[in-house]
Write a structure and sequence with these properties.
Layout lengths: L5 H5 L2 H7 L4 H28 L2 H17 L3 H16 L5 H21 L3
Length: 118
């Protein structure tokens, strides 16, 4: 697989298999959990941005970042990390753009998951 494949733009499938010890059923279960949990997790981040609450933003973005790293979705995880750092420092300048980047990367991940065949 080259770095130009769609999978590597969203998920590093080899890293994911390593993380999940090659267990395709576990991968599917984690994907299902992400689909169920993402709307609430994203709403927590969005609400923290709207409220300009750095503490809540730090916690909510950190939680989602961990999930995304576990799924080997590095671009999305990095977008969550940027929001986590903004929350930690309570630096809210340009935060809406950072939120949109996270949303866009997670939407790509959701599309990938919906098309994934183990």
């Amino acid at each position: 697989m080259t770095s130009e494949t769609p999978e590597n733009n969203v998920i590093n499938i080899e890293d994911l298999k390593d993380i999940m010890d090659g267990d395709m059923e576990l991968i599917q279960d984690c994907f299902t959990d992400f689909i169920q949990d993402f709307p609430g997790d994203f709403d927590s981040i969005k609400n923290a941005v709207i409220e300009k609450d750095g503490i809540k933003l730090d916690a909510a973005a950190h939680k989602l970042k961990g999930t995304l790293r576990y799924l080997a979705a590095e671009k999305a995880a990095n977008a969550a990390y940027v929001l986590e750092l903004a929350g930690k420092s309570n630096h809210m300048e340009g935060i809406e753009d950072k939120l949109e980047t996270l949303n866009r990367e997670c939407r790509k991940l959701l599309a990938f998951i919906n098309g994934f065949k183990a």
